[in-house]
Amino acid sequence: MNNTAGSYALVGAKVSRESSVVARLRDAGAVILGKATMGEWAQCRSRKASSSHGWSAYGGQVLGAYYPQQDPSGSSSGSAVAVSIGLAFGSIATETSGSIVNPAERGNVVGIKPTLGLTSRDMVIPISVRQDTVGPIGRTVKDAAYMLSAIAGKDAFDNWTSTQPFDVVPDYVKACDFLGLKGARVGVPRNGIDYYLDSSTKPVMVAFEQALQTVRDAGARVIEEANFSSFDAPSFARNSSIVLDTDFVGGLANYLASLSTNPNNIHSLSDLTHFTKADPREEHPDRDTYVWDRQLGRNLTSSSLESFMAYQANSRMGGKEGVIGALDRHKLDALIMPTFASFHLPAIAGLPIVTVPLGFYPAQTPLTMNLKKTMVSVAPNIPFGLAFVGRGWSEEKLISLAYAFEQRTMIRKKMKPYIRPTFELSDQLEPTEETPYKLKVQYRPPANDSPRFGQLVIQMMIGRLFLVRSWMWSILGFQQSLL
How many angstroms separate the CA atoms of 163 and 477, rounded? Predict the structure, then answer.
């Protein structure tokens, strides 16, 4: 399969080996269905008003399923939409800052952004080695937990995974506890939420306050005003710009050097910029290369003093002055926030998030368009999410809290997508002389006592012979930056 980041520049390029995450999925019995369209270069090519979430030159425009022309958020847009409409049991996505949890909330599904180092980034097209993480998107918390258990673990190809405090990956499925909220202490960092409030977030905040009462009723203690001691959004945004810019230039060159086939001779960000501006399929200048032009103009590397100081400042703001400080001061198990406000500090501090469905915009909601005026960002029935944020390596606790909330509310079931797929895999695979078989696909849910997964049974009918093979799991979708 092409590994393109949505760009024609890498069509036909081949990697030297399969990524560690995909290899782990295959070892766990996953059936790899294919790839999903993402925001080109993980939304790190153009300024926001110049492009749109989920658009790529090679893949086209991803649309959300809950309102016509819905902005799916990004950058792992297709990964979330595929799961939201049932095209896959689950999908794999990447997050640098919000790219798992944001499309997951807009798709009315569950997303887990793991601690930096819990999952390998081997052979994943990078943005920032200091922020990128690979995580699952699933219909339910338990579905996502199954996938996380499979892909987590140390990997010799990504030395950041050596920081894991365990040699055996936890069974995250066992953390799915209906009583997970009982006795828990969760905090609300109001200053980290209030900064992002506007007229469009009012319905979200109404649902959020109702969610806090649900959490209390489940036996948790909610600590109000568990604020961050420092929350300077413009400052950490400037620092993040430096960190991501310097990491991408070097990280991209290293990835390109690992290719076994590189038909367009793309070896650097400069080469990529020239190709993108010259190829009309990339829609330049309508969709600009502002981010790359800025990155090339910095003339810095990730080892430069300016980049190092920016990273250290962000680590402090996200950690001791941010999430970790709030957790420690108030002796909390987790922070609870609307998803739209949750991802900024965890991104710069490498901390985990689990987002679950929280609600939907009400019928009277006025439409809000995206900055490019091509898609609908806010409208009736568009979903939004609730996030649990924790310390590094606290995925078990976050999954337990999220599962307990999910099972008490079952919000995902309260609204159906306005569009439903009619595609049937078995209808598309007719016998031919080259492939004299037809597939019948049936998903068998796991038994109550099943220690692992359900089964996807595929029957290959060759004449009157029936060859039946069973795989654990179901079919998974992937975004274009992962092989």
Answer: 28
Return the DSSP state at 468. Answer: E
Task: Give the helix/strand (H/E) hosting 478.
Answer: strand 475-479
Q: Are 11 and 58 in contact (CB under 8 A)?
A: yes
User: How far is it, in rounded angstroms, from Cα 68 to Cα 367?
Assistant: 11
139 φ, ψ (degrees, to nearest 5) = -70, -35
124 in Cβ contact with 94 (< 8 Å): yes
Separation between Cα atoms, residue 234 and residue 253, nearest integer Å: 29
* CA distance linking residue 222 with residue 206, whole number of Å: 16
Question: Are 201 and 359 in contact, with CB atoms under 8 Å apart?
Answer: no
By CB atoms closer than 10 A (0-12, 13-18, 19+), residue 447 is exposed
pLDDT in tens, 246-264: 999 999 999 999 999 999 9
pTM: 0.90
Can you list the alpha helix ranges (DSSP code H) found in 93-228? 101-106, 141-151, 190-194, 202-217
Q: Note whether 187 and 330 are within 8 A (CB).
A: yes
Answer positive or negative: Cα dihedral of 468, 471, 472, 477. Answer: negative
pLDDT tens digit string along 234-246?
A: 999 999 999 999 9
Q: How many CA atoms lie within 13 A of 210 on its CB side?
A: 12
Closest CA to 292 of 30, 44, 29: 44
- Taken as a whole, the chain contains a residue count of 483
C-alpha to C-alpha distance for 25 and 37, rounded to whole angstroms? 20
Which string of DSSP letters, residue by residue, matches 135-174? EEEESSHHHHHHHHHHHBS-BTTBGGGGG-S-SS---GGG
How do 368-369 and 353-360 pair as beta strands? Answer: unpaired
Residue 415's nearest CA partner among 461, 370, 384, 459 is 384
Q: Is 90 left (phi over 0), alpha (psi -120 to 50) or beta?
A: beta
Give the whole-angstrom CA distance, residue 136 versus residue 234: 30
Joined together, the tokens standing for residue 199 give 């007229």
Question: Which pair of tokens denotes residue 46?
Answer: 């153009």
